[in-house]
Each structure stands twice: as C-alpha cells, then as structure tokens.
Amino acid sequence: MRLMARVALVIFALDQAVKYLVVHALNLRELGAIDVFPPYLTFRMAWNYGINFGLFSGHSDATRYLLIAVALAIVAFVLYWMWRDPPGKVGFFCAGLLIGGAFGNVVDRVLYGAVADFLNMSCCGINNPYAFNVADIAVFLGALGLVAFAGSGAARNDGTL
User: Fold this and answer.
1) Cβ–Cβ under 8 Å, residues 106 and 71
2) Catalytic-labelled residue, pool 15, 61, 136, 158
3) Which of 61, 45, 59, 146 is nearest to 102 (CA)?
4) Contact yes or no for 34/26 (Cβ under 8 A)
C-alpha cells in the first residue's frame, strides 16, 4: 500500500507542476497554442468540462460536482479493492497511477471548473483534434495495468498464476 501511495503522490505532484508550468508560466491560457515539436507535439489549451474526449461535457456546477463525485468514488473503490485483494507490486504501482491521476483531475475541476488539457500529438498525416494531460495518461495506464495485472494477490505472491 505504501508503494501505491508514493506513486499516487508523485503522479499528482508531477501533473499539477506540469499543468502550472504550461498553463500559467508559459501562459498557454492566453496564447491558446505553442508549437513544441510540430506536428508531433503541440501544447494546445483545452478546458475539458466532461470526461474523455469531452463526453458528457456541461458547463454547469452540477456536472462538475457529479464528475468530482464519480472520480472520488472510483478512487474509493480502487483503494478498497487493493486493501481487500492486494495485487502485488505491479498492481499497487498501477493503482497509484490511477489514483494520482484521478486526484490531479479532481483538483483541476475544483480550481478551474474543468480539467486543463494541453498535450496534443499528431503524426503521419493524421491531425489529432484532442488534447490530454499527464493525469489522463496516468489514469489510462493505471486502469489498463489493473485490468492486465491485478487479480488474486495471494496467487501472485507465491509465484503461481
């Protein structure tokens, strides 16, 4: 559980530091876009009022608080799951990724009313219109890792599958 807490704290701090740097220090909030390594990487300011790809977006406080509650419920579920069926180091690492990323996006919703997305990547003639952030990457990798690696911790700890 300590590994999970450490990973969550590192991801949360990294996400918030990068967001502050890009949105405020580089003034992306006002500039709208900064070409970093075009077309592969562009900082493009996008305020996400919904979930992935802007789904369920609404500019109302009710939507914001509902999404905060859902994120916190997911974190609570993952914490209970990790406590109930400890998955081993990889599972705890993945849970930490998910929890740290979720908290990073919750803080955005509390502070800004929306999640600050800014990473935009395109390649090979495909123009990606979507933006994401460090927390989104962590949530995605954490959820994917939990699906792939979490299971019966007792079986994993004794070396059997």
Assistant:
1) yes
2) 136
3) 146
4) yes
Q: What pTM, to 2 d.p., does this model score?
A: 0.84
Catalytic residue among 35, 61, 108, 117: 117
**Cis before 38 (ω within 30):** no
Ordered by start, the domain boundaries in the chain are: 2-152
Count Cα neighbours of 83 within 13 Å in the Cβ-side half-sphere: 7
Q: pLDDT, tens digit, for every residue of 73-128?
A: 999 999 999 999 888 899 999 999 999 999 999 999 999 999 999 999 988 888 88
What secondary structure letter does DSSP report for 160?
-
**160 CB-near residues (< 8 Å, 6+ apart):** none
Q: At what angle do helices 89-112 and 134-149 cross, to 10 degrees?
A: 150
Check if 136 is active-site: yes
Helices within the chain (DSSP H only): 2-19, 28-31, 61-84, 89-112, 134-149, 153-157
Structure tokens at 29: 């909030």
Q: Is 117 a catalytic residue?
A: yes
Collapsing DSSP to helix, strand or coil, 113 comes out as coil
